[in-house]
Amino acid sequence: QKEVEQDPGPLSVPEGAIVSLNCTYSNSAFQYFMWYRQYSRKGPELLMYTYSSGNKEDGRFTAQVDKSSKYISLFIRDSQPSDSATYLCAAAGGTSYGKLTFGQGTILTVHP
Amino acid sequence: EPEVTQTPSHQVTQMGQEVILRCVPISNHLYFYWYRQILGQKVEFLVSFYNNEISEKSEIFDDQFSVERPDGSNFTLKIRSTKLEDSAMYFCASRDLNTGELFFGEGSRLTVL
User: B81, B71, B62: which is closest to B20 by C-alpha?
Assistant: First the structure.
């Protein structure tokens, strides 16, 4: 059973669109949820980090976690061509805070 | 801004050879990790390291792998006898104890021929 599932896309949107990226997870022990952005052949860059359920906003980015449905979302407002990248969701739980379980990653292209 | 640095950025090796990948974690972080990403696949956890010992490892991290913190700044991953299937990007990460956030390096691409 895959612990974190993410639609790999690809997803293509026009500049200025609102982007919605989603993941589901199966492990009830997960308490920490992250979104990373990864450019081609580069390391994952942390975008958002949330604990348990709720929303977190940072500029154009909003992360949502719904533990009751085991659903993780990332919204990007006013998307820019520079947002084009692979977006990875990740989760961790229990005492293994640094042992992240990643989703497959969604490839996003924002075209001018 | 502090960052995790990794060397080499790319290494090509023959099957059966030993490889050492090096990492310099963020200076005030105490937890260190290695992850790998085979081309087109998920980023996978390999091992976590704290207080000079392995705290957790995945089933991927078999006897061919070892980690070490030889001095106060470096953190290394050694693959004793490389196999073709070890070809991947290897990412080092370190964790901020206060926030729990995990920061990754740029990765070392290993190609085994």
Answer: B81
